[in-house]
């Protein structure tokens, strides 16, 4: 895609200083800019690069005044960082604005979809699937029976959406995601073998939920596994059956949440956190990376460690943890004197 400086300025409500007709067709860091590239300057630490960059167009704040002549054309905006982010979003929308049904695909006769629909090759739509407007489903996606998908949803290549799953509006499901596989439910028999407990529930994603690549969310045993509106999950996360995650909670990669745990709103959970089942975590809780949570957590707690402690207590204790060898040596020395 090719855009001129004047077209970009129109999108960003900015002003051009330089050649308004100069064209760009790619994005670049300011220090790596070359002819035909668009870049931006927001961090003052990178100011020196604007005098050496070969980028054709650079987005800057309105208050930027160059010390000497520039080769790059400027687009001046109120906030260079936000404007560049807006442009990236616009770029993705244009790039991903596919429409139509590729072949081969399988669509059950009872599957329906709205306008501006895209279905990539080798995808499968089961019985009674209902899909809204402006939905993009990339190749090799499986969508089982009775799945409902709202408007403005993107499902990237290779995702698997099991039967009965409900997906709201404005959701993004990345490659390799599995929604609705059986929860890890087994009951021991008298002879010591484990017998699978049927998992008859489903998975619900409310509006504006993003699911990172390779993440798995299990269907409920009964009822639903629910991600409330605005939840953002990183890559390679495991959400077990009957878990509920509150609005606008964010979780980093490789975290695992065991069955029937309830997590509150606006929580921030770091990478590689392990959370046991059947507990309640309050609102606005912050959990540091690699922590292990084995108890209920009150609103606004900040935790670290395994088992996790209050964040402040952990830091105070850590001072002693790292000095344990010295402390033991001192104790042994005192014992020898005695």
TrEMBL record:
Coiled coil: none annotated. Its EC number is 2.3.1.191. GO terms for cellular component: membrane. It catalyses: a UDP-3-O-[(3R)-3-hydroxyacyl]-alpha-D-glucosamine + a (3R)-hydroxyacyl-[ACP] = a UDP-2-N,3-O-bis[(3R)-3-hydroxyacyl]-alpha-D-glucosamine + holo-[ACP] + H(+). HAMAP family: LpxD. Homotrimer. This is UDP-3-O-acylglucosamine N-acyltransferase. It comes from Arenibacter troitsensis.
